[in-house]
Amino acid sequence: MKVTKLSARNVFKGKVKSIQDGAVNSEVIVQLPAGIEIVSIITKTAAQNLGLKDGKEVYAIIKATNVILGTD
Question: Tell me, what's the pLDDT at 68?
């Protein structure tokens, strides 16, 4: 898959580390090359349609409107 045109500016290539299926949604952990992990909750149907499995290369695409920051 080649992502060529997106409105999102934060695109990270990584590999699926694990998938935990629930009744409706799947939690997908993507490991980036630097060892950082990104967790995404998507529908189980979407995970199946994307053919996700451990080790598959994927793109984590993040829009700034969906990022929440916090401090202590």
Answer: 72
Per-residue tokens: 10: 């934060």
The residue among 36, 37, 31 whose CA lies nearest residue 58 is 31
Average pLDDT, whole number, for the chain?
89
Of 63, 68, 19, 23, nearest to 39 by C-alpha is 19
Complete domains list, the chain, with CATH: 14-66 (2.40.50.100)
Nearest alpha carbon to residue 59 among 19, 10, 5, 20 = 10
Q: pTM for the complete prediction?
A: 0.82
- DSSP H helices, 1-72, are 44-49
* Rounded Cα–Cα distance for residues 38 and 61 (Å): 10
**CB under 8 Å to 2, separation ≥6 — which residues?**
none
Element containing residue 72 per DSSP (H, E): none
